[in-house]
């Protein structure tokens, strides 16, 4: 019997100088990363090396060099012990169309070694947990994309793993479906204590869902930080005010008054996504506590209503924006750090790096 650590230990995944070279491409390039229990996002553009990393961690593909341990188990020697303890939701559609979700998930549970009765019970519980009810008896071929993603999630969870790898679980889902899937992913950890490694190219999703985010690009580690560190507060204040008869554009009146007092103010920034009506928001550079007092007094002096005054937080996408800007300024200087693909804003806060 192979010894394995539990999710109470400090790390669930450790890689050291892990490389994977194909004849024409280096998919992973000396990647060293430690991943703790919780929900961790693995983000990178298409081709960054996410799926290759997952396959190596499952013991399904050999690394060219370096080491990797999952739950304390060595990927080169303990592949089957790792797969007993780890669930895997693959990226691509891999479901048989002619069988029902129940039949398929029972089959996967049996493949994982559960006896028949336990496999049926666990299947019923898991399908209910992912939100499939009466539909679970119908052939999968007639399911929507969202239902298929839930079946893939259920088969990853059915053998009660300590850790799951979810490869692009929100692919192909509409915004409501994505929100539901993200909620499910959070509950996998909060309700069952299962750690999650989830890949996505949508940064906004990871910001909302993950405790920790690992960013890779061209097989190299770009950054590994807690989500809080990525989204730490900035020195910029977001201020929103009401309009009045005397000042039909309250934000503009405040901007003029603050600018007159020597305070740097902009009406819009690239990081304003997700905030209501950015045209009515002011972004005020706060020199210190006195800036708060000045804003409050100026709003009161103009007779405007103060709707909000809060410190703006960084967004994960800014890591990419900053790297892109540095790359544009000095292309040779930023080879290892800058993502090779641009990101694009998407539905108010999610940024696509693919
Ligand atoms: N079996 C293989 N043979 C040759 N090259 C491969 C193989 N598998 C992956 N690659 C290459 O390795 C690089 C990383 O691929 P990988 O699938 O890990 O990226 P990814 O980040 O998961 O992207 P995607 O989300 O598009 O799958 C890519 O350039 C890919 O073409």
Write a brief structural summary:
Keywords: ATP-binding, Nucleotide-binding, Transport. This is ABC transporter ATP-binding protein. The protein folds into 3 domains: 217 residues, 3-Layer(aba) Sandwich (Rossmann fold), CATH 3.40.50.300; 81 residues, Alpha-Beta Plaits (2-Layer Sandwich); 36 residues, no CATH class.
What do these coordinates show?
By secondary structure, the protein is an alpha/beta fold. The chain folds into three domains: 217 residues, P-loop containing nucleotide triphosphate hydrolases (Rossmann fold), CATH 3.40.50.300; 81 residues, Alpha-Beta Plaits; 36 residues, no CATH class. Helix content is 34%, strand content 25%. The chain has a six-stranded mixed β-sheet with strand order 6-7-8-3-9-10, with helices on both faces. The longest helix has 18 residues. The radius of gyration is 24 Å and the shape is elongated. It starts with 12 loop residues before the first strand and ends with a strand. The N terminus and C terminus are likely disordered. It binds adenosine-5'-triphosphate. The site of adenosine-5'-triphosphate (ATP) has 11 residues, from helix 1.
Describe the protein's topology.
Elements: E1 13-21, E2 26-35, E3 39-43, H1 50-57, E4 65-70, E5 73-74, H2 79-85, E6 86-89, H3 101-111, H4 116-129, H5 145-157, E7 163-167, H6 175-192, E8 195-200, H7 203-209, E9 212-217, E10 220-226, H8 227-230, E11 233-241, H9 250-260, E12 265-266, E13 281-285, H10 289-302, E14 306-313, H11 317-329, E15 344-346, E16 350-352
Parallel strand pairs: 3-8, 3-9, 6-7, 7-8
Antiparallel strand pairs: 1-2, 1-4, 4-5, 9-10, 11-13, 11-14, 12-13, 15-16
The structure holds adenosine-5'-triphosphate.
């Amino acid at each position: 019997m192979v010894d394995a650590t539990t999710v109470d230990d400090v790390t669930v995944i450790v890689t050291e100088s892990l490389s994977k070279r194909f004849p024409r491409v280096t998919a992973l390039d000396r990647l060293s990363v430690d991943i703790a229990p919780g929900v961790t996002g693995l983000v990178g553009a298409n081709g960054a090396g996410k799926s290759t990393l997952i396959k190596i961690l499952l013991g399904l593909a050999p690394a060219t060099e370096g080491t990797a341990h999952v739950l304390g188990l060595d990927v080169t020697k303990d592949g089957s012990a790792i797969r007993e303890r780890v669930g895997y939701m693959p990226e691509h559609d891999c479901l048989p169309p002619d069988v029902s979700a129940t039949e398929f998930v029972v089959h996967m549970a049996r493949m994982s070694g559960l006896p028949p009765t336990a496999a049926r019970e666990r299947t019923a519980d898991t399908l209910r947990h992912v939100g499939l009810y009466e539909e679970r008896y119908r052939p999968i071929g007639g399911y929507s994309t969202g239902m298929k993603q839930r079946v893939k999630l259920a088969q990853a969870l059915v053998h009660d793993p300590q850790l799951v790898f979810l490869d692009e679980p929100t692919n192909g889902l509409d915004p409501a479906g994505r929100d539901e899937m993200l909620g499910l992913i959070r509950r996998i950890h909060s309700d069952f204590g299962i750690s999650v490694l989830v890949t996505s190219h949508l940064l906004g999703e990871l910001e909302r869902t993950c405790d920790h985010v690992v960013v890779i690009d061209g097989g190299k580690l770009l950054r590994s930080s807690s989500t809080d560190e990525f989204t730490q507060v900035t020195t910029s204040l977001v201020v929103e005010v009401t309009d009045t008869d005397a000042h039909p554009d309250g934000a503009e009146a405040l901007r003029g008054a603050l600018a007159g007092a020597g305070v740097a103010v902009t009406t819009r920034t690239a990081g304003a996504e997700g905030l209501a009506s950015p045209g009515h928001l002011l972004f005020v550079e706060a020199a210190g506590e006195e800036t708060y007092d000045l804003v409050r007094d100026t709003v009161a002096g103009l007779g405007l209503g103060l709707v909000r005054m809060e410190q703006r937080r960084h967004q994960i996408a800014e890591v990419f924006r900053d790297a892109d800007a540095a790359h544009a300024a000095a292309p040779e200087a930023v080879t290892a750090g800058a993502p090779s693909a641009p990101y694009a804003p998407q539905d108010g806060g999610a940024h696509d790096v693919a």
